[in-house]
Predict the structure.
Amino acid sequence: MPTPPLRRRIRTALATAALTLAATGLSACGSGGPQDSAGGGGAALEAWVYGDPSAAVQRKVVDRFNKTSDVKVKLVEIPGEGYQDKMRTSMGTANAPDIFFNWGGGSISDFAAKDMLVDLGPYMKKDPALKKAFIPSILDAGRIDGTYYGVPMRGMQPVILFYNKKVFREAGAEPPASWDDMLDLIDTFKEKGVTPFALAGADPWTELMWLEYLLDRFGGPGVFQKIVDGDKSAWNDPAMIKAGETIRDLVDRGAFGKNYKSVNYTADGASTLFARGKAAMHLMGSWEYANQKANQKEFAKSGLGWTSFPAVPGGKGDPKDVVGNPTNYWSVNATRVKKGERRDAAVEFLKFASQQSYAKDLVANGDVPATSDAKEQLTAHENPEYATYQYDMVSQAPSFTLSWDQALPARFTAPLTNNLQKLFNGDLSPKGFADAMRDVK
């Protein structure tokens, strides 16, 4: 089983691949390789899912659905390392899936632009319970130009500010409730010889979480939404410049220590420093808990604390806003599933993701479901306190911004991480970063 950070890194790569389809061209591919579970004869709907241990949840729902439907579903589990190529070479061909796993937003925007996806809005209007079944901020995060093309089908993954309880206790400190608290804690931990924030500067996607939260807190989610909508000038929005200046201030204050440029995440570098008390806090996706459980079990059990990213002075953003990976989604391929019985069956299959039995399976798998009524089931989670915190954090969020490297078209991915790393390392000024991103073709 790949570790949570590796899974996250693969997810980003796969989302990028989906976005490059229009530029790279499409060609047919063979059907060999994936493992599939039988779901009926040749008329079965083929549903592709990312092949990892969480696919066990999707196997169960396929079995339940096939007991109720004349049109069957066949689940095809694509190994993680093969999902990228499989999607690239199949969408738009006769070998494409009928239903497929994705990340919403930018990961399917090219497909939506080519009218390759089923608009789920009319189905939600006809069956309002379907829309109400999911936390609004997560359901909305999967929209494209206001249109719903996906239904949440896996757990939520918000970015959380984690802290080391033992380090805080020994310093007589409390988790930050304001930006001034954050700045004071930097001084407090530096005096103790502890790096205030673990940061894996060798893996620059980890730095993106800081920019995402700071832009939201200074300018609100609308600034980044303008960028997603194609407004290049929004890269030079005052809130973006202020976010960049704040990053430089944090670096200069020593918030990330002196060696962050050489610290990695994918080999557990930053997480290990954090767990061993060499760093006091760590801004990371919710998968950090699973990562710590796998590699520093005792720390995960009793030493890991969590809180929200605070507001900033003069900021326009709501401090309850969340950034990260809202969840994964099921979408229906409109070019494969024409109107009629098969399309109706495909949408009915998507509706199974809104059922309590599905949420129960997710909880048993260690996930936190995106359904609006899942909270009562979280007592069965392996860490109910942590799961409930995540659930409340997301369900109360006015906005959940998708990770920028997944929300933006593929041409932005490399420039974004490269330029952001230069900003952190002092090789680009905040304005220089904004200008460089504005000029990405």
User: Anything to note?
Assistant: Confidence is low (pLDDT under 50) at residues 1-34, 38-42. The CA atoms of residues 39 and 74 lie 4 Å apart. Residues 4-156+326-402 form a domain with the D-Maltodextrin-Binding Protein; domain 2 fold (CATH 3.40.190.10). Residues 4-19 form the longest helix (16 residues).
